[in-house]
Design a protein that fits this description.
The complex is a heterodimer of chains A (111) and B (113). Chain A is an all-beta fold. Chain A is built from no helices and eleven strands. In chain A, the strands form two sheets. In chain A, strands 2, 4, 5, 9, 10 and 11 form a six-stranded mixed sheet that branches. Chain A has a five-stranded antiparallel sheet with strand order 1-3-8-7-6, with no helix packed on it. Chain B is globular, with a radius of gyration of 13 Å. The chains are: A mainly beta (111), B mainly beta (113).
Chain lengths: 111, 113
C-alpha cells in the first residue's frame, strides 16, 4: 500500500463546475496535509494546508480532512481553465521530517 | 521576500560525470529538502537538512549526497551519473523546526546523455 494515494486522472470538469480531488494516506498518525498545484513544466506551488479535521476554505478552494477515514480532499468551486494543472497531495508522516507526495491528479477544466 | 532559487536551471551531462546543484532557501528558512521528480516515479524525497545537519534521507543510492552551509544554502551532488538520473530536481524550504509548509524553487532540469 502506498503511503499517499491519489487518482491519477485525468479528471475533466466543465468550466464553472466544482472539481473534487481526493487523497488517502496510510499513516494514521499523520498530522499535516497539503495540496500543491503544478502546471506543466513548472514546480509545485502550495495552495492549501490543513491540520485539523473538518473544512478549511480559502477563496475558491476548500480542503477537507477526515483523519478517522484517512482521507483529505480538495474542492475547487467555479472552476476556471487556469485551474487546469496537476494537483499533488502531500502528507507529513508522523515523526518524519519530510513530506510524502501522491502521484498527483491531472485536472482539465473545459471551457 | 525572495523565493527559493535554484541554479543552474538546466544542465546536460554525460554518463559517468558528476553534477552539483545549488539551492538558496527563502530568507530566514533553515530547512531545505531535495526531491527528484520523474514522470514515472513522481516526487521522490532525497534528503532534508536543518542547520547544516541531515535529518532525513530517502531511498536513493549513495551517489546522491548533499550538504547545507551556515547561511542555509544547500547543494546536492550526484556522482557517476546514469541515464536514469535524468529528472527535475526540486529544492523546497521550510521555516520551522518541524517540516510543515514547504515552498519549492523552480527546479533544475538535468538531462544525462
Amino acid at each position: 500500500q502506498k503511503e499517499v494515494e491519489q487518482n491519477s486522472g485525468p479528471l475533466s470538469v466543465p468550466e464553472g463546475a466544482i472539481a473534487s480531488l481526493n487523497c488517502t494516506y496510510s499513516d494514521r498518525g499523520s498530522q499535516s496535509f497539503f495540496w500543491y498545484r503544478q502546471y506543466s513544466g513548472k514546480s509545485p506551488e502550495l495552495i492549501m494546508s490543513i491540520y485539523s479535521n473538518g473544512d478549511k476554505e480559502d477563496g475558491r478552494f476548500t480542503a477537507q480532512l477526515n483523519k478517522a477515514s484517512q482521507y483529505v480532499s480538495l474542492l475547487i468551486r467555479d472552476s476556471q481553465p487556469s485551474d487546469s494543472a496537476t494537483y499533488l497531495c502531500a502528507v507529513r508522516i508522523q515523526g518524519a521530517q519530510k513530506l510524502v507526495f501522491g502521484q498527483g491528479t491531472r485536472l482539465t477544466i473545459n471551457p | 521576500k525572495a523565493g527559493v532559487t535554484q541554479t543552474p536551471r538546466y544542465l546536460i551531462k554525460t554518463r559517468g560525470q558528476q553534477v552539483t546543484l545549488s539551492c538558496s532557501p527563502i530568507s530566514g528558512h533553515r530547512s531545505v529538502s531535495w526531491y527528484q521528480q520523474t514522470p514515472g516515479q513522481g516526487l521522490q524525497f532525497l534528503f532534508e537538512y536543518f542547520s547544516e545537519t541531515q535529518r532525513n534521507k530517502g531511498n536513493f543510492p549513495g551517489r546522491f549526497s548533499g550538504r547545507q552551509f551556515s547561511n542555509s544554502r544547500s547543494e546536492m551532488n550526484v556522482s557517476t551519473l546514469e541515464l536514469g538520473d535524468s529528472a527535475l530536481y526540486l529544492c523546497a524550504s521550510s521555516s520551522g523546526t518541524v517540516i510543515n509548509e514547504q515552498f519549492f524553487g523552480p527546479g533544475t532540469r538535468l538531462t544525462v546523455l
